[in-house]
Structures are given as structure tokens and as C-alpha cells.
Amino acid sequence: MESIKVVVIFGTRPEAIKMAPLVKELEKNPQIQCVVCVTAQHRELLDQVLELFNIVPQYDLNIMKSKQSLTGITCSVLEGLEEIFESEKPDIVLVHGDTTTTFAASLAAFYRKIPVGHVEAGLRTHNKFFPYPEEINRKLTGALADLHFAPTTTSKENLLREGVDESSIFVTGNTVIDAMKYTIKEKYIFENNELNAINYKNKKVIIVTAHRRENWGSGIENICNALKIVVCENKDVEVLYLVHPNPVVKDMVSSILKGVDRIHLLSPIDTGEIHNLMKKCYLVMTDSGGIQEEAPHLGKPVLVLRDVTERVEAQHAGTVKLVGTDVGEIVSNANKLLRNSEAYNHMSRSINPYGDGNASAKIVDSLLKYFKIY
Fold first, then answer.
1. Domains within the chain, CATH numbers bracketed
2. Residue-wise pLDDT tens digits, 275-305
3. What residues in the chain have per-residue pLDDT under 70?
4. For the whole model, what pTM was predicted?
5. Concatenated DSSP letters for 347-358?
6. 13, 42, 212, 244: which one is catalytic?
7. Is residue 313 annotated as part of the catalytic site, yes or no?
8. Given 211, 262, 297, 311, which residue is catalytic?
């Protein structure tokens, strides 16, 4: 073959952040025709990333609806991609990670007998309900994929244990590290003036994100109550809680934390904003997956507000620590990092296991070799 057509599909902000540098790398290669399709499983949050990286999709399914269900997302993606695949006839479809868009797009490609490349393949918690539905999404995508771009050797080993042919697995690092080469700026000025007003030099700023389905209800409630205690016991702390717009999360967070001194409830910010905010902060507390990879790259310790994590490499490296959603555990671990410089330095200076920022180039090189384009 002299050239290939690659359709890249994503639908949420986390996917977009990690696929954007890969899109840029694909577009640079004259032997690759890159076609971008977004499902807009998330709308506004996705658009922020597209604008930041100057990516204009050729296709936009625009499936997001109020109170959308997992079944509805799956059906909309399957139906929307059928016509696109018939028109484009791609040589391969690339998907990312563990969203419902990822699984449904892989299934749609399988139905058309189109090869699937899975970026960020092989992450596992080995519990199908944690995180939900992401663990099953990535396992099902792995079963459908022809090429597996694993971020680490641990991810590769997970795939090998599941019977995946070793010749189809490529260890590349994680593309999110690539993305940070585009987003981190010296002397960055935030679009949100409330962020510019924070005293990052004299305050210990904690960034918080928590919105996972398995934390809805008592999990989010516990996290919020723990934050109240942390700021009460540490007068030099400011908390910046980036509150997910889902009413299930937003309403509970607001009911507990609105008006609490030194806790700022903020709307989600775009990728450039959050990467530069992480660079300035002291500590991150999150139930997100991607932040467990991003913050350690900037030397920021991460307390993971979940009982299990698929980013076990970060645990082993010492850059993140699982604390769950127990109030006492959150408070004691936060206080330790806020008050014990040795404990803080141990986490902040550990080596990030997610690569050197060249994952996208390695993926492109693997595609060219797979299709025997030299």
C-alpha cells in the first residue's frame, strides 16, 4: 500500500485530550489521510479541546442529549457511524480508552469488518463495575481490536494474560504526555479571573475533581465533607473544586460546599487551563483516570478518590495513592502531604511511568509498519 485512510473517533473531553496530539501526528504524514469523527457524547467539554488544538472534525454525530443513557449513547453511535463507514471505507479505525463511544465505535467497525486500533489499551482493574461502565468498555474494545497501543508494559501484560497476540501489541507511552507539550505555557494567564486571583505562592492549592458514577451519592458526600475538614484544619489551604455539570454531582456538591471559606466551586475548565493550573497547584485529589497520568508529569502528588485504579503503574511508582471515599482516610492522607515535607517530596519526585511525550509518533510508526508502508 502507498497510503492509508485512518478514521479517528472520540466523543468526550478525556478522549479528545489524548487523541488530539495523535491527530496532529497523523495529519503531518503524507502517506496517511486522517478523517476525524466526533460523537459529541460530551458537547461543550469536547468543543473546548477541539478549539484548543485547532481540530475541525469532518464528521460530528452530535448525539448528546439531556439525561442520556448508556443504551442511548451506544445506539446513537452505532447508527451514526454506519453511514460514515460506508462512505469513507477506512483502512483502520482508531478509538481511545474506555468510553461508551469507544466501545460502540469499535463494534460498528467490526460489523463492517474494518480493523480497529485501540489507543491506551490494556488498562484493567479486574472488577467490571469499577469504574463503571469503563472497565467493561475497554475489555470489550480489546476483544474487538486488531492493534493494541498499550501505554505501559503492565498494560501489555494484562493483554497477554487475556490471550492477545503479542505481535499486535505496541508499548507506546501515553498520548496525554504528548498533549502537555502543546498546552503548558510559561507565565500563563487564566481565562477565569478567579484562578488568576489565587495566591499560588503562599497558599497550598488543592485541585479536586470527582464525578464518577460509582461515587454518586455517599461517595461525593464523603468527599465534600472531607474537604470541609481539610480547609478547617489547614489555614494555608485553598481548594479549587472543578464541578462536573451533571446535576447528580453539581447539586450535591453545591448543597454541602457552597459558601465554605477557601473552597471555590468552579465550572469545568478547558484542557489548557487545567494543565497550567496543575502546574501551579500543590496537590490533586481526583477520581479521574487521566489526571493520574497528567499531574505526576508535573511533579504533583495525587490522592485517588476511588477504591481501585487501572493506573497501577502510578501506584507502584509512588506518584499516586488510593484513598477511597472514606472521610477519615481522605483527611489523614491530605494532612500528611500538607504537613510532612518528606512524604510530599517522596510522591512529587517519583518518576512518572507514562512515557516521554512521543507516544503519538510511535503509534503512527506502528500503523505504517502494520500496513507495510515504508
1. 4-174+356-371 (3.40.50.2000), 193-349 (3.40.50.2000)
2. 999 999 999 999 988 899 899 999 999 999 9
3. none
4. 0.80
5. HHTSPP-S-SS-
6. 244
7. no
8. 211
